[in-house]
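notes to self, project folder thing:

trying the whole complex as one job this time. last attempt i did each chain seperately and stitching them together was a nightmare. two parts in total, labels are on each line so i dont mix them up again. if this works i'll redo the older ones the same way
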Amino acid sequence: MSILHTINKSPFERNALESCLKFASDGSAVLLFEDGVYAALQGTAVEPHVSGALGRLKVYVLGPDLQARGFSAERIIEGISVVDYAGFVDLAAENGKVQAWL
Amino acid sequence: MSEVVKKFMYLNRKAPYGTIYAWEALEVVLIGAAFDQDVSVMFLDDGVFQLTKGQDTKAIGMKNFSPTFRTLGDYEVKKIYVDRASLEARGLTEDDLVEIAWEDFETEEEIENIVEVVDSARVSELMNESDAIFSF
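result (full assembly):
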C-alpha cells in the first residue's frame, strides 16, 4: 500500500525532511506544506538532498503555502509539482496511508 | 521619555505563519517602540523568511503581517539587521527582501532602506552591545 508522506516543518530548523527522505520507500509521494515548503526552493543548503530523492520519490508542494511565504512556482526545484488544496485531497485519497512527519 | 535609554535587540529566528512567533515578535516590537529605547531588530536563521517580498496569505486564511514590517521605520525602529549566512543557506539574496524606509519627521532626515545585511561576526558584536535581547 502506497504512502503519502507529509512534511510541515522547515528543513533548516527540524529534521523531519531528513528522516522522511531516509525512511520513505521508493515510489512514495511526499507533500511539502506549511513551513515544509522551504525545502522545495532552489539554491538552498538542502536542495541537494531533495533533488537527490526526486528520482525515487514523487515530491509535491502546496501552492497556497508557497504563495503566503512570497515564493512563486519559478523558485521551485525542477521536478517538484505544485498542487492546490484539492490536489492535497487527491494525494491523500490516492495513497492508502498518510504519514505525517511532524 | 525615560531617563535611561537601553539597547534592546529583538531576535527573530522563526519563519512566518508556521508558528505564532514571528507575529508575536512584531507585536512586541511595536509595543516596545512606545518606550523610547534604542531598538534593533535582528533576523537570523529561518527568521530571514519573515522579510521576503510578495507574501500573499489569501489562500491560507491567515493575516498577512508582512506589510507591517514596512511601517517599522515610522515607529522609530532605525536598525534592522539580517544575517548574510542565513540568507545564503536559504537560497535568498538581498533582492528577495522588503525594503524598509525611515524618516525623522522633525529633521526630515530620510533613509531609503534600513535593512542591513551583515556577516556573522557583526551579528555577534551587535548581540554583545545589547543591554537586553528578546528572543522569538
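what i see at first glance: Chain A touches chain B at residues 8-10, 12-13, 34-35, 38, 41-45, 47, 63-65, 67-72, 75 (CB under 8 Å).
need to look closer tmrw
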